[in-house]
Amino acid sequence: MAGTTPWLILGLGNPGAQYAGNRHNAGFMVLDLLAGRVNGKFKSHKARGDVVEAHLAGERAVLAKPRSYMNDSGGPAASLRDFFKAPIDRIVVVHDELDLPFETLRIKQGGGDNGHNGLKSLRQSLGSGEFYRVRLGVGRPPGRQDPAGFVLKDYTSAERKVLGVQLERAADAVESLIRDGLAVTQNQYND
To answer: Which of 24, 79, 148, 186 could form a cystine bridge with 47, CB 3.0-4.6 A?
Structure first.
């Protein structure tokens, strides 16, 4: 198994303690859970990311958090892809999604950016948007609140009470995607 092409699991978020509990950091939160499941500790990598190399769902996998702000995730993602030689059909991106209600999870392959600047950066740098996506719903902001400001705010105390379940389901969905493929994973996890 050591010589097989790894899965590259990219969690999107912003580095730094001030962003740790933000809705925009849902991808980082899921990767932290996955790293915990394999007893891995993120280490700085020369490809501008923090990585854990492990076996996940019986496959070689690289868990990676780009060491850049969300809107510039593409550069580190492309460096990580090149270093680990992961083809686009073995890349899974875990991210927040405004267009899905909170507590909703959706898995798909390909698609547009939906105004998500992290995805836009990835598409540009990777040269394709045909990677897998594990999308965690954060919902739309209330009233006239700016969506950009909303995703950079921490989850509310009410949301935090159930957030753990959503993050665990997303981590389970990543493992299912690797082990069982897209159709099975969508049937089991898409809300």
So the answer is: 79
